[in-house]
Amino acid sequence: MNSFEISKKTARLVVLQRIEIANPLLKYFRKLFGRYIFTNIITKFFLSTQEVSNKYFKIMSDEFLTIKDFIKGDNKNFLSIGGGVGGLEAVVNSNFNDINFYFIERNFVSNKIKYGWGGLLNSEAYNDVLEQKNFLLNNSINNSQINIFDFDNDQLPKLKFDIIVSLLSLDYHYDFNIYEKYLREVSTPKTKIIFDTIRADYFNKIFNNVKILDSQINTVHKSKRILCSDFKDKI
Ligand SMILES: C[S@@+](CC[C@H](N)C(=O)[O-])C[C@H]1O[C@@H](n2cnc3c(N)ncnc32)[C@H](O)[C@@H]1O
To answer: In this structure, are strands 224-231 and 207-215 parallel, antiparallel, or unpaired?
Structure first.
């Protein structure tokens, strides 16, 4: 596999989820016409699905390398929070057998995409869970391995996860606090929780183990990717 099977509609979502995939012309259009027109019109007519597929695959393969050491072994229950259409999980699946993927996502595209810190308001989203499911099936994940939950409408899965991954989503666009209670319920001291944040030190108050895996200095947010485990007791 060196690119993804991707529909035009999914490619449009992927560009919203990963703006670095947009080529310079698309970025220029976004600046010129604003985000609403970019999202609803420009991506409809000026996007090369093949180019998106190739770039998305390359980005997700690189992201996979930052987390792969923590999936080894018996890690069968994988929770993805805000995984977008699921490119990372498709790459994980092509490298490991028999993983059960659980996705918590949202099922709408915000009118105004801000790519900012929504904090506790968390009103931003750019996904479509039907497109996500088709993407995962078309990229060799079996139906029985796919469990998708709509953050706004579904009861979230209640099981103990081995690994929880949220790239550029949890504590990057919205406050970790939104998920803290839930994550305490679905983790064991061994569960590995990986996400991107601009306040890595803060998590020393929440977890007994916090390790910085990577620093993203070239992005607007200058975030760190951290691996946390073992929640401290609440005071
Ligand atoms: C910047 S995109 C990143 C997508 C993917 N993780 C990646 O690295 O390409 C952020 C994703 O978080 C999702 N999202 C926003 N709020 C969420 C929430 N409360 N729970 C789960 N996902 C959320 C958005 O719909 C979007 O797909």
So the answer is: antiparallel
